[in-house]
Amino acid sequence: MTESAAYPKVYLGGDLVFRKDAQQLFKAFKEACLAVRLHGVSPFDGQDEVEALPPGKETSLLIARLDRGLMDECAAALFCIDPFRRAADMDPGTAVEIGYMAAQNKPMAGYTVDGRSYHQKVQSYFEQAWHTPLTEEKPQTGGRVRWLDADAMIVHSEGLLQNAMVEGFIRQAGGDIAVADDILTAFRAAASDLAGLIYGASGQEGASHG
């Protein structure tokens, strides 16, 4: 039995699978997991059969089933909540995965290289993509000020890095959101946070220095 097999399996979710350097990232992340007694599981693990299949509906749905199966096997998860495709919001598939793990009451932690508030992300996106600023809607009867985008949709989740359901589910599962300029640094902090949830703070201190 390998060293990692003795540790709790942790699903490594995020938009990482779409990045050109995905395999190198997952290799580094798995090593970071081992350092805190976790067994990192990439969405690519156990999906060798997919590489030989033609792109299309059936292959895409198979990937969704395989990813769900991996999450079922894992005791916890680490999620990247970086903005996706130059927009304010994160990868929607990852958001679904966060909800799925939350429904199973599994511990989670998150990480990102973008520490701007969600409000700032939305504002920047509309200014850069549509050259349209947010508009302020002042309350008529003493309520709080609301900000609207160019489609008159309310900009929500004040004080958070992402949608309140995304960040809220991670925090309700006990985890924090690690922020750093470098993704590996952010991931290591999140992995340490998650290991603390699983092993307890005192046990994790010994693991990280052992």
Catalogue the unreliable spans: 205-210
The secondary-structure class comes to alpha/beta
In total, the number of strands is 7
What's the architecture of the largest domain, going by CATH?
3-Layer(aba) Sandwich
What is the terminal separation in angstroms? 20 Å
- Note the main sheet: 5 strands, parallel
CATH topology of the largest domain: Rossmann fold
Whole-number total of structural domains:
2
Helix content, binned percent: 40-55%
What is the number of helical segments per DSSP (H or I, 4+ residues)?
Answer: 8
Shape: globular
How would you characterize the overall build of this protein?
The protein has 2 domains: 160 residues, Rossmann fold; 44 residues, no CATH class. 45% of the residues lie in helices and 13% in strands. The longest helix has 17 residues. By secondary structure, the chain is an alpha/beta fold. GO terms for molecular function: 5-hydroxymethyl-dUMP N-hydrolase activity; transferase activity. One of its GO terms (biological process) is deoxyribonucleoside monophosphate catabolic process.
Summarize the structure.
The chain has helices at 22-35, 48-51, 57-73, 92-103, 118-129, 164-172, 183-199, 201-209; strands at 9-13, 39-41, 76-80, 108-112, 135-137, 146-148, 177-179. The protein contains eight helices and seven strands; from the N terminus they run βαβααβαβαββαβαα.
